[in-house]
Structure formats: C-alpha cells, structure tokens
Amino acid sequence: MVNKVPVLTLDGPSGVGKGTICLMVARELGWHILDSGSLYRLLALSAGSEADLNNVAQLADLARDMQIEYVTSGDALGIYLRGVNVSEAIRTEMTGVLASKVAAIPEVRQALLDKQKAFAQAPGLVADGRDMGTTVFPDAELKIFLTASAEERAKRRYKQLNDKGIDANLSQLTVELKERDERDSTRSASPLLAADDAIVIDTTSLDIEQVLNQVMQLVKQRFG
Ligand code: DC
Q1: What is the fold, at CATH topology level, of the domain defined by 7-223?
Q2: d(Cα 27, Cα 19) in Å, to the nearest integer?
Q3: Alpha carbons 100 and 39: distance in angstroms, whole number
Q4: CB of 10 closer than 8 Å to CB of 144
Q5: Cβ(180) – ligand 1 distance below 6 Å
Q6: Could you tell me if 40 and 29 are in contact, meaning their C-beta atoms sit under 8 angstroms apart?
C-alpha cells in the first residue's frame, strides 16, 4: 500500500531522544505525531501489574478495544484511557518494563497495527517507535534510525530524572536500559532494527539541536 500522506519514521532504542526530536519536528512541520510506545504502555497499564501475559487472546482483545484519546493542549500532550488522564501513570519504570513484555507478543503487535496506521492523516505524520520503518509504515518516504551508546542514553535519562527532582542511580539505569535493549532487539516479532532503507544517525556525541538540524535537513531534502 502506498502512503498518500507523507510519513517520517523515527525509530531507535530507549532513551535515545526520539520523543523530543519527534515533538520538535512535528511542531516545526505542523504534522501529526504517533508515539507508538505509548500504545504499549497504555496496554500494560490496562492489563495491570497482575497481567497474565500468557493469556494472549485476552491481551490482544484488550489492545483492540482500548478507549484511548490523545489531546494536545499547548505544548503538552494529554493521554487518556477510558476518560482518565494517564499521561504520567504510563511513564513509570514499572509500566515501561511491562510494556516491553507485552510488546514482545506477536498477537498484541498485530492487534495494534490498524490503530497505528490510522494516525497517518494529512498534512503528514511523524511516527516514533521501534518498528515504524520496518513494519507499520514500510512505504514511508523518509526513515531515520537514531542510535547512541547505552551509557550515553543512561546519562541522558539520569539528567532528565534529576531535572525533575527524581533520585536515580546511573549504573542501575545503564543496566536496565541494556536489559530493555536486549528484550526489544531479540524478540522475534518486529525486533528493534533499522529498516534497510533507513538513514542511521549516531547521536552519542551530538546535542539535541545538532540532531534536530540533521533531521530537518533530511526532511527538507525529501519533502521539500
Ligand atoms: O518508547 P517507549 O519506552 O515508550 O516504549 C515502551 C515499550 O514499548 C518499549 O519497551 C518498546 C516497546 N515498543 C515497541 O515494541 N514498538 C514500538 N513501536 C514502540 C515501543
């Protein structure tokens, strides 16, 4: 299927800064944004910490039936589940770990596919995730894959948490990131992988402005 709506996919591992870059690019272009990780986080939250991850059919049903709403107000994006604002609740470490587990289930990924494709609306879409370029939008006109060393990503997360006044342990964050990378990269269903036609940007020694500049340059080349 050819995408009528222009789509930019931005994939990469946890903590690489995709979310920030996607927001900045989407704002600059006036395009829609798909934070696909939030769908896995919403499912994890819906299922709850006691989720029976073996009950695949039930999880897939839950994934299809989730009542989700994304509401933009100013610079903030409010995420609602069954009418309840869960923007903060889905960002906890516990939900992230459970999200990465539900994301490894092929039936869940399949169930969320249509929901994700539906985000491609005019005037364009910036899609943030792990498999945007490989699976969800294989025909996207521009695919970018952001990387950075696990140590650098852990440092960025550490700083982010510190800025919010949250205590964190850098070596523990590094270990957790590596564990999540391992789980996201080695699963058989849509593993974290750059699409063959993706442009890879190693951001280890770049700051956010430098990454944004490189991405915007590619966007201008591709979309004019
Ligand atoms: O980007 P994030 O941390 O919000 O993603 C949460 C989890 O969901 C993460 O462990 C990887 C998974 N995920 C995925 O498998 N595919 C995507 N397209 C996006 C996220």
Answers
A1: Rossmann fold (3.40.50)
A2: 12
A3: 11
A4: yes
A5: yes
A6: no
pLDDT in tens, 132-178: 999 999 999 999 999 999 999 999 989 988 988 888 899 999 998 89
Residue range 26-43, pLDDT digits in tens = 999 999 999 999 999 999
First and final CA of the chain: distance in angstroms? 23
SS3 call for 88: coil
Report the alpha-carbon distance of residue 153 to residue 23 in Å, rounded.
Answer: 18
Whether 46 lines ligand 1, by a CB cut-off of 6 Å, is no
Q: How many CA atoms lie within 13 A of 186 on its CB side?
A: 6
| Domain map (residue ranges) of the chain | 7-223
Give the pLDDT of residue 50. Answer: 55
Q: Minimal CA–CA distance to 135: which of 20, 34, 15?
A: 34
Cα 158 from chain centre:
19
CB of 99 within 6 A of ligand 1: the answer is yes
Protein residue closest via CA to atom 19 of ligand 1:
37
Between the CA of 48 and the centroid of ligand 1 the distance, in Å, is: 17
Q: In this predicted structure, what is the pLDDT of residue 215?
A: 98
- Check residue 67 and give left, alpha or beta (phi > 0: left; psi -120 to 50: alpha): beta
Q: Which of 16, 34, 35, 36 to mutate to test the pocket of ligand 1 (most atoms within 8 A of CB)?
A: 36
Q: Which of 115, 102, 148 is nearest to 36 (CA)?
A: 115
Q: Is 143 helix (H, G, I), strand (E, B) or coil?
A: strand
Check pocket membership of 109 for ligand 1, CB cut-off 6 A: no
